[in-house]
């Protein structure tokens, strides 16, 4: 782990792994709180690193101090959320591969608390290293294997690190102007601070630079469509949806954002686009047909309660209150609070 001023969360992280690791290597980049003392209480080896605005270098410095044959990399605002000792052991016994853990990210959206899942390379043999100033990536030709490890992450919930991240990402873009990965990542930062114009600008750059073989390809497409909606720059969306529909046919998030895009397009010029109205319902029904997915990095709910809720909204605004309530009730069965509120509003009219 590399850390700085993580006293509020590091205990939770170390508690989650202390029974399954042989050593804990902590590289501190300048803590002024109790982070080091807490880590030392867990028997961690503490190493100090002069921060040089390069996460890949700091990761590699930490890996240099590991004595193990395998390394599990975590951040202090993460924690192991399931019983996974057996899964880790089996992967290490298999050897010659890199384990990708499922991380569940907690964040805020317009409806309140939301969660997304992504798969990231975090368990690998000694000798594997990172590259990249920020959003650093594991460099290896070893095959990536999904590992039965779930990692909770809430470091970006009610917190923004854009002041730190945007300048670092811009440095990478200045050095690699056509690298779609860094345009994709900086767009996420701009979206987080609601600078939708810049988010759209960089996602357009990212999308146009894709080979479509990238692991983040599908999410770039989805985020690009969301950026069109947020920035009110809707002109290219129909062409993007048409172009990507075959490749992303099994991705609920793609159909979910398509439904939202159709709505925004119709509202922007009803006379011109009203013929697309049925596509809104079709998009959300497709989400439900697909269900939640582990094939992609996905926002939880796009294949279930969020799609049900949006179908409820669709039927409510088109005058079919009975069908709307039925969808809201189904969404509410997942504990989805926005649907519970709509049921209360419609049944108390």
Write the layout of secondary structure elements.
Elements lengths: L1 E2 L6 H8 L7 E4 L6 H7 L3 E4 L6 H10 L5 E3 L5 E3 L4 H10 L3 E12 L2 E14 L3 E3 L5 E3 L4 E10 L8 H14 L4 H13 L3 H14 L7 H15 L5 H8 L7 H17 L1 H4 L3 H14 L7 E2 L5 H13 L3 H12 L4 H11 L2
Parallel strand pairs: 1-2, 2-3, 6-10
Antiparallel strand pairs: 4-7, 5-10, 6-7, 7-11, 8-9
Helix pairs in contact: 5-6, 6-7, 7-8, 8-10, 10-12, 12-13, 13-14, 14-15
GO molecular function, one term: transferase activity
Organism: Paenibacillus paeoniae
Keywords: Transferase
Describe the protein in words:
- The chain has 349 residues and is an alpha/beta fold.
- It folds into two domains: 2-153, Spore Coat Polysaccharide Biosynthesis Protein SpsA, Chain A (Alpha-Beta Complex), CATH 3.90.550.10; 162-303, Alpha Horseshoe (Serine Threonine Protein Phosphatase 5, Tetratricopeptide repeat), CATH 1.25.40.
- It is 49% helix and 17% strand.
- It contains 15 helices and eleven strands.
- Strands 4, 5, 6, 7, 10 and 11 form a six-stranded mixed sheet that branches.
């Amino acid at each position: 782990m590399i850390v700085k001023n993580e006293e509020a969360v590091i205990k939770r992280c170390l508690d989650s792994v202390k029974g399954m690791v042989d050593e804990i290597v902590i590289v501190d980049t300048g803590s002024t709180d109790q982070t080091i003392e807490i880590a030392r209480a867990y028997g961690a080896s503490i190493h100090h690193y002069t921060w040089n605005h390069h996460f890949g270098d700091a990761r590699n410095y930490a890996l240099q101090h590991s004595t193990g044959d395998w390394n599990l990399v975590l951040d202090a605002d993460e924690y192991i959320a399931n019983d996974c000792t057996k899964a880790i052991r089996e992967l290490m016994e298999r050897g010659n591969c890199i384990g990708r853990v499922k991380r569940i990210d907690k964040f805020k959206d317009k409806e309140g608390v939301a969660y997304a899942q992504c798969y990231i390379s975090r368990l690998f043999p000694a000798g594997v290293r990172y590259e990249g100033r920020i959003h650093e990536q594991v460099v290896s030709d070893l095959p990536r294997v999904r590992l039965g490890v779930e990692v909770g992450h809430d470091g970006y919930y009610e917190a923004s690190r854009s002041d730190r991240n945007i300048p670092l990402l811009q440095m990478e873009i200045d050095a690699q102007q056509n690298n779609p990965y860094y345009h994709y990542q900086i767009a996420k930062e701009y979206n987080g601070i609601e600078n939708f114009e810049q988010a759209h600008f960089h996602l357009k750059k990212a999308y146009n630079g894709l080979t479509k073989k990238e692991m983040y390809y599908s999410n770039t497409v989805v985020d690009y469509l969301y950026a069109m909606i947020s920035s009110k720059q809707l002109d290219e969306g129909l062409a993007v949806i048409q172009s990507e529909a075959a490749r992303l046919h099994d991705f609920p998030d793609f159909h979910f954002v398509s439904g939202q895009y159709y709505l925004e397009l119709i509202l922007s010029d009803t006379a011109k686009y009203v013929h697309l109205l049925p596509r809104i319902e079709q998009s959300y029904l497709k989400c439900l047909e697909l269900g939640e997915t582990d094939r992609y990095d996905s926002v939880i709910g796009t294949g279930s309660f969020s799609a049900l809720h949006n179908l409820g909204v669709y039927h409510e605004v088109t005058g079919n209150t009975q069908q709307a309530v039925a969808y809201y009730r189904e969404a509410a069965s997942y504990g989805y609070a926005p649907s519970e509120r709509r049921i209360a509003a419609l049944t108390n009219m």
